[in-house]
Specification:
Number of strands of chain B: 22
Distance between the termini of chain B: 72 Å
Structural class of chain A: mainly alpha
Helix content of chain B: 40-55%
Strand content of chain A: 5-15%
Order of helices and strands of chain A: HEHHEEH
Number of strands of chain A: 3
Helix content of chain A: 40-55%
Largest sheet of chain A: 3 strands, antiparallel
Largest sheet of chain B: 11 strands, mixed
Oligomer: heterodimer
Distance between the termini of chain A: 32 Å
Strand content of chain B: 5-15%
Shape of chain B: globular
Structural class of chain B: alpha+beta
Radius of gyration of chain B: 36 Å
Amino acid sequence: MPVDRRHDPLPLSVPEFQVLLALVDRDLHGYALLQDIEERTGGEVSLTASTLYAALKRMLQARWIEELAAPSARSDDGRRRTYRITRRGLELARREAERLERAAQMARSKRLLPGLAARGRSGAGK
Amino acid sequence: VTARRPTSRSRDSTSQSSGPATRLFVRLARLLLPADYRRFVDELGETFAARLARQRAQGRSAALVCLARELGSLILLAVRERLHRARRPSRGNHREWRLRPLPALLGWELRQAARSWRRSGSLFAGLVLTIGVALAGATVVTSVLDTLLWPLPVNSPDRLVAPLVLRDRDPFLVSTRDVLAWRESAPVFESVGAALPLSVTLTVDQRPIRIAAAAITPDYLPTLGVEVAVGRALSADEGETAPVLIGEQLWRSLLGGDPRLEGRAVLLDGRRHPVAGVLPPGFDLPFGAQVWLPLRLDPAGGSGSRELSAVARLAPGASVSDAEREVRALAHRLELAHPETHNGWSAAVVGLRNQLIGDFDGRLRPTVRVLLLTVSALLLLAAANAIYLLAARAARRRKELAVRRALGADDWRLLRQLGFETLLPVLAAALLGIGIARLAVARLAEWSPLRGLALESARTLRVDAGSSVAILLLALALGVTLTLLAAFGAGALRAGRRRRPPVSRSAMRRLIAAEVTLSVLLLTVAGWLFSSLAQLAALELGFDPRQVTIARLDLSAGAPDAADRARRVDELVARLAALPGVTAAGVTTNAPLDPMSSDARVWAEAPTVPQQREAVLLVADRAVTAGYLEALGVRLAEGRLLESRDAAGAEPVAVISRDLGERLWPGRSALGRRLRRGGPDSEEPWRTVVGVIEPVKEDRGAFRRDRPAWYVPYAQHVPDRPLTLLVRAPGANSATVAGLRSAIAEAEPELPIYDAGALRDQVLELLAGERVAGLLVGLFALAALILQGGGTLAMVWNAAAWQRRELGVRLALGATRRRLLLEACGWPLKATAAGLVAGSLAALAAGRGLAALLSEVRLLDPRVLVAVAAITLAVALAAAWLPARAAQREDPISSLRAE
């Protein structure tokens, strides 16, 4: 399937954004990704294995992430792939976060959300 | 970027990864997901295993939820991927490479399918109608079955039976002695409860309302497995206060649904009864009771009158036939021990459900079987037509499909396209079917055999969400089957080398023969049902139910004195007879075809045939006023009817039915002879027979047979029982009811009138079961005939169209049009004849199953077979001849050019 790079893929879907976010500061394998997402969102986002791999497959194709060769340090991890975010993925995640931030700003200016002092929602963090 | 830091927890869980659930998951993933997922499958399985292991630690249910969610998600992903790949990516849509949500993908497929149908609208309409009619039939039948097999508001209803007593095979309510015998000496019953049906006056805000009630033994509710919803149950010894249980509806309307029952009471027949408890919603056994009083059975056996409704729970392991054997043996012992009350009485056991719908002789099962048979035949017929139409369409599009294949579509893709194209008319048909069924069922509900039933929930016949969903699923299954048959059967997916007619001549012949077989089967069964209905409708009732209004009233509560009651009844009848338009009016203890009949034993003074002391004659016992028999419209055979001179002090008289006279004094006139109530040692006065009338169908249970009856003047015999008013007046029933009500309100303002209506409705209700079955099967047969004719028409038409070139050549070479026409009509007619023979044989075989349903009817009426054959051949001839002739009329030159 050809990847269309001419157009902006923003906004990202929830699984895409959460996977990128999980990979921002460390490389993770499949199940660790699920756990990280679940813990960070307090269970609000809970992907199934199939949803995760559907997203991983398409993000690999689009080169937002890349897979690392099986880690050499541990022999029993032979089949397990670890994923790392690419520069493009990092860029997209940042732009998505900024987009969300802007959206949150708008909500604040309409007093839908409390002022800046009460910030700290995980989805808007950089 | 820091190096990988797999958490310790995930490592633990992967070590126990390959349980059966994981293996299933991996296998499914490998099977369902597209090839480019293959390299992820192992990892997917590991991740799944890790998650499942973690959920398992939290408990079984969490693990199950997780498993279901993961499997569902996997299947959904597979479906979405497959559908996604089926689409051509549209240019310039940046989201194209992402998976779209399922509804969008399905919508795209359906839009494609709709586009493909745009050019063949009439074929689409034909398909929708064909399948829609069959699905409507299926919906109606499932709704009827749903209602017939409704869930009873009792615990494990399959173990509940109703033991009853029989006299000449007629079911009766049971006596105290029967209940005691079953309770003590029938180990086949775990428990036996009894209820005495009553009718009581409930006073609400000083207004009297007549409601159904029952006195129940303490084990009645436990036997049914019903517990009080609020408050407490009735105990074995309730003492003088006589507390009652009330129904849920009454509780809401009277007590506002207040759960505190202390100090609450209801006024029944002028007496205060504290409310002990409330029964759960929907429960109204026996006979629609709304109030339940305590009942203690007389351990000595009581008077011997049969007025109890019994219910028994089978002991574990016991079957209905075990119970039947045992109660029959017990009945025999009772006959010997108590000949004065039990001689000539047998006993039987029916399932509670059968008892509730009045199905004492097991008609339900054959009825259900006939309905299922007919509706399956109809579905098969519609499916056969649909297969043909779709196959013809697929074959015609072979070129288009070949082009698609050449452009890279694989078999799956083409099959999916055909599938969605089939799904569209099938879904439309399902909606049409449900729509038709809703209308039909609403009409049908008016004739429902269940209307006379207790149990509110059973009385409403409707198409519920459940049967609609079932029909949609059935339609989906049908769609898939049709797609596969049309695709592979017609070879649409095979690369076509030679252009051939869509379906071979021999296949069409077989299809026509099969369709004719089915429709002949349906038509014949319907014909037999109708001829049985006609015979039932022509049933000699012995009275004329037209223009008769009936209503019930009960004088017993306010008037303990018999003379007072007789005087009031006389006054009432006089007022009713004086109403404008009323030609006759009267009062009886039981109108004909009442659910409950009261009977009396009679003893004749000097019978020609010797009477047996041990087998006293049992007759339907009716105390009636002068004018009643006239209002009923009976036919006098001899003598006179009852008149006002047959008063309390006058000579005791009776009018008897002709069959009673023939039984006691065969070949002689009964006039002037005497008989009396009770056995040989009775103290009752002798009554002189002053009139003989043609037999009246008095008994609901035995309405197909005559039972002897006698009619005595109400003034001379005043039983303490509820009464029924009868008024004969031409004109609208509602006007009569209104006049009747106001006349009674004037004379007796305190007296509640209830169950007012037309006598004719009661008669129709009796035949409702047969009418509904007959109507349904008749409609199905009509639909079958249309489908069969339509199918033949479509096939001959298509065959002629495919043969245009051949016909053109033959015409040009000098073949006569007449010869070609005969040829074109010949093969479908031959096939029809074959189907006719097969269908008649099938109908004769099915006739055996029908025999149980139509026991009183001359079965296998050969006239029906002849009529069906004539109709079928006529339809086939028309269906074959019309298109064939149209094809022959064409100019041969244009036929040749058409290619």
